[in-house]
Amino acid sequence: MPISKPPAPPPSRSYSAVLMESRRITPPASHEEVRHLVFRTTDLSFDGALGNCIRVLAPGQFGNPHHARLYSIMDLERRSDATEFAICVRRCSYIDDFNGEEYKGIASNYLCDLHPDATIDFAGPVGYPFVIPEDKTADILMLGMGTGIAPFRTLIRRIYEKIGGWKGRVRLFYGAKSPLEMLYMNDENNDLAHYFDQPTFKAFQAVSPRPALDAPVSLEQAIEQNAAEVWEMLTRPGTRVFIAGTGSMLDTIDQAMLKLAGSSRNWAAVHKELVSSGRWSEVLY
Prior knowledge:
The chain is α/β, with parallel strands linked by helices. It has helices at 106-112, 149-163, 219-225, 227-234, 249-261, 264-276, and strands at residues 14-24, 34-41, 53-59, 66-72, 75-78, 83-90, 93-95, 102-104, 119-126, 140-145, 170-176, 201-207, 240-245, 280-284.
């Protein structure tokens, strides 16, 4: 019984941004291409925040002016003359249900093929931002899959580099199809390794048992293996829960939490308290 906040209404304002950097963050041996893209907009009225999404307005098809897709803001820095922000994009394709042919995803391929100095149009921000609590003793539980790791990477960096002295537990549960798709946690890009020596930080990786068959990642199992600590964090006053990834992961999380709680009534009560107190935040795409 995952409860999601209603989506924000489509923004009416659009902006433009210039691509400053595009780099692949999956290893060359990986079949998945995921890119880290940094953009710069000089429109200072853009008020996005970490955890918000932007709606990229890719060139449309079949007479449509745009093909819109949401991407989570993973990094954001405001300057006196511009705002720089980063998104994480997986190059996608899909199988047509009618003819069985494979087609390239419009927005993802548009973004992955961009070169520095190219300009995009986008709208936003959309959704609810992840807000780090002021209390440094608060626990933070992060649950993510795929490119959902992107905003968590920035959250962790802010907690330990910009804020510092964090005393609460910071736990990251992250799922991917294979070790090669562990974004920011692989041999090519292991940014999160910098924080493994922090006494309050731990990361738990969950890899699909059958990636070739597109089996779901064992995120549920990773949570269950740490059941006592996760449940204690969920029921502790002040704990923040951040979720990022595809909407389908909510069922996996819900099933894991039901097992931890021992009954649907127990989990419903805890979940309701987290949501009503503003301590449960989701970024789903």
